[in-house]
Specification:
The chain is an alpha/beta fold. The chain contains 16 helices and nine strands. It is globular and about 70 Å long. Its EC number is 2.4.-.-. Keywords: Glycosyltransferase, Transferase.
């Protein structure tokens, strides 16, 4: 019989960890064990968990003597878990009652359709809740990726939240678990390594509530971006290119996505040389957007503006292009036009940090005092701090 253990890293989690554990105890498909790895909490987390253990012997507590970070804590929990599958949860998030049952059933059904198992990781949609448990928004980031395409898609953007992920313990250990050298983006790094051996299964249902509050590690954008580049830099350009072009998309789409990766890695000239070869697709909005950010990098405002206008002509609601046109107009002294573009971007994406920042900015407007957006936006934006 398949066994499933939950692994929860905790650090100063006294306010919410009881809710998290109770949500796992109340699953329609019971878990075989719930392992909490406490990362040297200084509050009453250990006491809260110890109290719950007295009522339920399926809960196990591991106490670390110093703070190592969530990646190390999760690795310790998986090492201790004697189960076939691992369910990851963070210590302030909530699993919906049918989470485990639906993940297991979906994965089984999916793998039965093929001659050999292809999927060893599955994750659901999730909702964001605030500190009081009120639903803030619903996020539908994930998609299902076949094994041969998974790495190519995930290199572009992390679409998997750690809470609610069910993964094969054997594969987790085979790829080396979480990289403890990363304090940020360690989850994305792991999903990338797993995607080289597995398809990524996705349930299009909201089955996990993820709590957003001031202590979330992911709330630091600058550090997130820094670690994302470190993760990408661990792959050769040849490997990334091969992964991108294995996807069953058009040549132009694959080429544009590869150029976007090159730009993120500051390889601007290499990327632009590829864009030039796509002149036949000059009316493709992604080609135009990438040319726009290339010209921004070269500080050629005239050509950048032309490119972003072309994007808007094709896709009027492209938020990143609207923001960039707003910033360009501010720099050029066309304040009314600039604010018109920015207000349109904010109307479409109320949480849009760059556009809100530019709208509040005071003259004189310069390259240094406005914010450009260097990647196209997700369908729905998350609010972050900018530290």
């Amino acid at each position: 019989m398949t066994t499933i253990c939950a692994v929860i890293p905790s650090f100063n989690s006294e306010l919410y960890i009881e809710q998290t554990i109770n949500s796992l105890l109340n699953q329609t498909r019971p878990l075989d064990k719930i392992i909490i790895v406490d990362d040297c909490s200084q509050d009453s987390t250990v006491q809260v968990v110890s109290k719950l253990i007295k009522k339920n012997k399926n809960i196990e507590l591991i106490q670390l003597k110093q703070n190592f970070g969530s990646a190390h804590a999760r690795n310790i929990g998986v090492e201790r878990a004697n189960c076939d599958w691992i369910l990851f949860m963070d210590s302030d998030d909530i699993a919906h009652p049918t989470l485990v049952e639906e993940l297991e059933t979906y994965l089984d059904d999916l793998n039965k359709k093929s001659n050999e198992k292809e999927y060893f990781l599955v994750h659901p949609n999730y909702r964001h809740i605030d500190e009081n448990g009120v639903v803030v928004d619903e996020l539908q980031f994930g998609r299902q990726y076949k094994k041969e395409e998974a790495l190519g898609f995930l290199l572009l953007r992390n679409t998997i939240a750690t809470s609610g992920v069910l993964v094969s313990r054997e594969l987790f250990q085979r790829v080396g678990g979480f990289n403890t050298n990363y304090r940020y983006s360690e989850d994305w790094d792991l999903w990338l390594r797993i995607s080289e051996h597995s398809g990524i299964a996705h349930i299009d249902k909201y089955l996990v509530d993820i709590r957003r509050h001031s202590n979330n590690l992911s709330a630091s954008l600058s550090k997130m971006h820094e670690h994302e580049i470190k993760v990408l830099s661990s792959y050769s350009l040849e490997k990334m290119r091969d992964a991108i072009f294995r996807r069953s998309l058009s040549y132009t789409q694959n080429a544009c996505d590869y150029v976007a990766l090159l730009f993120r890695l500051e390889k601007w000239q290499e990327g632009y040389r590829i864009l030039i070869k796509l002149e036949d697709d000059k009316d493709n909005e992604m080609v135009s957007f990438l040319k726009g950010i290339y010209f921004l990098k070269m500080k050629d405002l005239l050509e950048a503006e032309r490119s972003f206008i072309n994007v808007i002509n094709i896709s009027p609601n492209d938020g990143a292009s609207l923001n960039n046109l707003g910033a360009i107009n501010l720099i050029n002294g066309k304040i009314k036009d600039g604010k018109m573009f920015l207000l349109k971007a904010i109307e479409l994406y109320p949480n849009y940090l760059d556009a809100n920042y530019n709208l509040r900015a005071k003259p004189p407007y310069t390259w240094e005092t406005v914010k450009f957006t260097w990647r196209r936006l997700r369908p729905k934006l998350i609010s972050y701090n900018q530290q």
